[in-house]
Amino acid sequence: MSFQEPLSEQNWTIRQSWKRCQERGLQPHDKADDQLLSETSIKELQRHYNFLLPHAEAVFQKLYPLIIHFGAVVFLTDADGNILYASGDAAFANRAARVQLQVGANWHEMRKGTNAIGVALQEKKPAFVKGSEHFFRENHFLTCASAPVFDRSGNLLGVVNISGQEQTFHPWFASVAVLAADIFQNRLLVQQMQAEQLIALRQFELVSERHPMPLVTLDSDRIITGANPSAMRLLGNCVGKQLPDEPNFQVFTLRDETNRLYRAVAIQEDAHTSAGSRQKQTLYTFDDIFGVCPEVKRVKEIARKASFSTLPVLLMGESGTGKELFAQAIHAESRRGPFVAVNCSAIPDTLIESELFGYEKGAFTGANREGSVGKFVAADGGTLFLDEIGDMSLRAQAALLRVLQEKTVTPVGSVKTKRVDVRIIAATHRDLQAEVQEGRFRADLYYRLKGIVLRLPALRTRSDIGELAEHLLQKNATPRKVLSRETLRKLEGYEWPGNIRELLSVLLQASFLAEGETIEPEHVELDTPSRPAEEGPFSLRESERKTIEEVLKETNGNIARAANLLNIGRNTLYRKMRGYGISHKPYSIRKQS
Q: What's 458's DSSP letter?
């Protein structure tokens, strides 16, 4: 970057800036925009540019004696013209503050007229503005030299500006500003290279650990940058080519502290790998989730969008509605590393830490002699699916919360912590809000898990039971069977307490019982009576209504307790009460009697 340019070109740049100011309706005799950012906004902005400010301190410290000698001040701005940092002569800084040349002010051309900062931002090249060349008269006492700072991709990061009194400002400062901007860019480049070296070391460690298996290293665009001999035998001369969509390749992503994707390693698991690897090869995708019901389509669309987020996902729905299927589809779409599933209700309290966080060899009686990495480390770089999270004990919840907050795990029997990058997907059939109110689920853990909430509809509420039944038959029944109209009506009239899982079981049994290719109503065996239009005095609906009334009387009208006893959500209970015409009045009367 060079500041040297013909005087005529410099004058042309100033004239163009004045022209832009006049087109915006600015007047030289008016006062320039004098708004300053609040202290809170300044700190927030500085936090955003914390990767830049340490370099400002280092670079400006070397310029400080020269800046002080000539009574000047050096500034750093962001790409929008906001001043982030200032250092230099205190007397001139006080004079400059009268025209808001200070931290928290914005010196973009559209707000402060022609000035070196604004012109450098506009033209993306060094600018020198002297005295009366400033558009606003109040700034004519200034002479300023600015130079833009770019990242290695050519994106504008901000401007280095040196300002002083017109009478004492040395023209050499124009070259100093350019030199300071060059030093900025070099320091940023070195910092980025160091970060990439650390990533490369992590990549090498992962490669060396899995050396016996076919593996390739990838850049951020999934282009193969390296391959071991096993991979070369499998894929041929693949370096420089796109990684093929091989289902047996498991991709581990490597990110820096800003969560930016730098590299990836793809490893092909063989037939003798762990059950977790086999699970990876058979994950469900969104193509496996059938639904023409508008509510299912809506949930599926939100789930697909959630795949590209790092927020935790909470899947809520009755048993059999497909929560794990959605969890696997979200993970598969995200293209993260391993998918590890944990049934939270099946882990005893005494083993929760060792199961989730792993343990050292000999950590406790009965432990594996080789130790265990634990579910969090096994899922590092990928997704941990916490199924039936609502059934987890309070002690286990506390242990889980600590890891989610700190993003580190300490194996049982060890003093060393390990940082983990795990995306959490949790699922439950319980109403966690009610569980929190009843003290059975930690509120802090609930809000930690409640990033993106997906509520899966119960089968009885779906409008596509017939279409879903036909889809399941086509996919699972051999030889192929069809459903008669009467059978479809019977299926649509049933409550389906077991949801899709129960529907599939009923269909497979009916397919077995049917002699021909058509499944008739007599082949469909249901556990409870269906719900015909004309229901008798002992129908399922009447039984449900009576049960709700009895539980409400038992709990004296407490909706939360009643919903918990009925094992349904409060909103579901309210909806059923409205449908059956049940009110609270009888229970308050009962209390008085």
A: P
- What confidence tens digit (pLDDT) does each residue in 325-363 have? 999 999 999 888 899 998 888 777 777 778 888 877 655
Q: Position of tokens 């051309």? A: 109
- 377 Cβ neighbours under 8 A, 6+ residues apart: 357, 358, 409, 418, 420
pLDDT tens readout for residues 466-494: 999 999 998 887 788 899 999 999 998 89
pLDDT tens, 73-123?
999 999 999 999 999 999 999 999 999 999 999 999 999 999 999 999 999
For the purposes of burial, counting CB atoms within 10 Å of the CB of 419, is it exposed (0-12), middle (13-18) or buried (19 or more)?
exposed
CA 348 vs CA 31, 307, 343: distances in Å = 72, 31, 11
Q: Of 416, 384, 382, nearest to 400 (Cα)?
A: 384
| Angle CA 583–587–591, to nearest 5 | 160
Angle at 156 between CA 152 and CA 158, to 5 degrees: 115
Phi-psi region at 536: left, alpha or beta (left = phi > 0; alpha = psi -120 to 50): beta
Question: What distance in Å separates the CA atoms of residue 266 and residue 349, rounded to the nearest whole number?
Answer: 36
Q: Give the dihedral sign, CA 565/567/571/575.
A: negative
Contact 314, 453 (CB under 8 A): yes
**Residues paired with 452 in a beta bridge:** 313
H or E element, residue 135: none
The alpha carbon of residue 148 and the mean position of all alpha carbons in its chain are separated, in whole angstroms, by 33
Q: Where are the beta strands (DSSP E) in 63-155?
A: 73-78, 83-88, 127-130, 142-150
Q: CA–CA distance from 55 to each of 76, 111, 185, 319, 390 (Å)?
A: 10, 27, 9, 56, 49
Torsion sign (Cα): 19, 24, 30, 31: negative
The full length of the chain comes to 593
Half-sphere exposure for 186 (CA within 13 Å, toward CB): 9
Q: Which residues contact 470 (CB under 8 A, 6 or more apart)?
A: 482, 483
